[in-house]
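Lab notebook, bench 4. The sequencing result for the construct came back, and we need a structural model before the next group meeting so we can plan mutations. Quick request posted to the team channel:

Model the 3D structure of this chain.
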Amino acid sequence: MNLSSLAQPLLKEKQEELDIQDLQGLWRINWKIDRMTLYSGIYTRVDQVFIIWAVIVGVMFATAQFLPINWTIQAIWWSSLTIVGAIAMMSLTWFWAGVERLRWVVCGWAILVLTGVVLTDLGIFLGWGEILIHLCPMWLSLSATGYLFTGIGLRSRALFLAGCLHFLSVGFLSYVGGWQFLTTGAVMSCSLLLLAQLQWDMRSPIEYALLTSAQQQFNRQQHQQRIRNLEIKS
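Done. Here's the predicted structure in token form:
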């Protein structure tokens, strides 16, 4: 970690001074009734991916916990949904990851997700009991691995700690009895929603090779404005 990243809070309110790569495909939500604001928020494409996966994971593990649906049918449904989620993840984040020189992180997550799908399907279709009884620890461990290398790539303590939390949750599963699927889904989904809702720390800006000189200058100005705002708040 460099000094500038250590000076940042792990989590804070979303910043408005966004870089070019974060402004691409930005969602701005401002729900109002007359003049009363019900909800206001901004979501980058990375945030959108977090939300998509939070929904996918929540639905999958809640269904496994509460609905008596055949495992084979669930495997077909969730494999298809997970592949769609992986494609959406790569599509939404590819430009951002290219600018940040982090496409290896996106590819790493895709490999982890597809590995989990393949192992899960093999366990169900081939009746591999050892995999079936360890589905929840397996998915938590895969997610933990993804958060750890993402935290390292982004120099983010928040993401690194999210990975540690997922690893610790593996040990906690033995204490929840028959609620392992619900617990796993809650840990994974809540972590994703929290990261989508708040601003997490990361390394200082780099020289972005994919951006024009004007775009790089815009990013430098945004970075200086973020520093000034942080100094004012502190």
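The mean pLDDT is 92.
Will bring this to the meeting.
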